[in-house]
Amino acid sequence: MKILDEGLKGKNIHLMGAGGAGMSALAILLDKIGARVSACDLVSTAYARRLEDAGIPVMKGHDTRHIDEFMPDIVVYSSALPKDHPEILKAWQRGIQVARRAEILSKIFNERRGVGVAGTHGKTTTSSMISLVAEKAGIDPTIAIGGEVLQLGTNAKLGKGEYMAAELDESDRSFVYFHPEIAVVTNIDWDHRDHYMTFKSVTDAFDEFLSNVKESGKTILCMEDAGIRKLREEYKIKTQIITYGYGNNHNWGAADVNHREGGGVSYTLLHDGEEVGDVELSVSGDHNVLNSLAAYAACYEMGIPHEQIVQGLKYFGGAKRRLQKTGEIDNILIYDDYGHHPNEITATLSTIRKIFGGRRVVAIFQPHRFSRTAALYKEFARALSLADRTFILPIYGSDEQPIDGVSSKLILDAADDDTRSHYELSEDFEDLISSVCRSAKCGDIILTLGAGSVGTLGKKILEKLAEMQR
């Protein structure tokens, strides 16, 4: 299979919003393909600094002068930026091609034997598992992930092999640009309600995505998820369907699941009801059992032998900010997780409960987006009730403007009478760090949760606790 990456080599390509995981991954791939890449973002992030280390110029802020300075052939913008942004408008006025991230990434993906992972939750971990297994098996895949694969030390890589594993984003419907050979759907929830007005509009989008699977391709579906079951019942999926879930009623199943104290999980793998062997994971939680089944099914279809898949899954230590240990002091363990939807928070807190037994769990939650908070504040309150103590930060708006009457207090007010006393609103990071550290006890699990800036708090809490001990 000859891979040409036509239309991208030698082009001047300017990326707006390159400090995010998805855009930085595209920047890395374009640079390796041979494009002349420039980038800009409002803030300096670890992803942006990595681009700078690779020799890619990253400008602080957005400015129409970038069009004159870099003379791009293509301007690529992230979904966080409005289409009428002055820098984008100037490119249009100059007759320069303007494209969404997915339009350009799909050009790279569609030339390869694409393995695309979609779903409301779990797609970063699942695509990371597939990428790591394929890499260790010697397939040398191209990868593009919405988070860093810890064992690979990156979120993107241009491989020489035929396959490409990618996390595909449904939030703005841009995953419909992709034509995978193997499509994985982990679950379907009604999220991103600023873009999807009804749950049916979500399932319509997933149906369109699956209609783009190549004619000889495979569709891998989690049958434990109600949204996927609804999709399968109400829409006609044209490609071969491969199912996974618990028990022996699926093509790939997990039985005798054992959650190990302190972390990790094992289970017996079933193929069409027959035992194949045991699988051991270094990551924890029922959700990761399902993620690993999806990854196994995809890697099996890629032709990777069972032994190599099992070895790769055991080696996988997680993706960055997916129940990642930040540190430990005085038997107080601090973890960080990207969970920003009630179902993700429930899965993470349930996992903490399973692997750490009777320890007190302290959650620090930063709601992400005003629209999501307005739609799901009751569900957030129920999910956070699984913690023994919860600190709630102000909403991280991302690219949204505030909505009248929508604040973190909605979550507090929605809590049950018997759990509301366990919640505390924090005005800012300094206020929160002081409150958390004053109340911390030996044996606590402190968990930072959210898709915004909350991921930086764990190290600051460690520093404060160490200072208090001196």
Radius of gyration: 22 Å
Tally of helical segments? 15
Spatial order of the strands forming the largest sheet: 8-7-9-6-10-11-12-13-14-15
Helix content: 25-40%
Summing up helix and strand content along with how strands pair, one would put the structural category as alpha/beta
How would you describe the shape? globular
Strand content: 15-25%
Unreliable stretches (pLDDT < 50, length at least 5) are none
What's the mean pLDDT score?
89
State the end-to-end distance: 62 Å
Largest β sheet strand count, sense and barrel closure: 10 strands, mixed
Q: Got a strand count?
A: 21
How would you describe this protein?
The protein has 470 residues and is of the alpha/beta class. Helix content is 36%, strand content 24%. The protein has 15 helices and 21 strands. The strands form three sheets. A ten-stranded mixed sheet has the order 8-7-9-6-10-11-12-13-14-15, sandwiched between helices. Strands 16-17-21-18-19-20 form a six-stranded mixed sheet, with helices on both faces. Helix 12 links the parallel strand 18 and strand 19 (389-392). Helix 9 (286-301) runs antiparallel to helix 10 and helix 14 (429-439) packs across helix 15. The longest helix has 16 residues, at 286-301. The radius of gyration is 22 Å and the shape is globular. The protein starts with 11 loop residues before the first strand and ends with a helix. The mean pLDDT is 89.
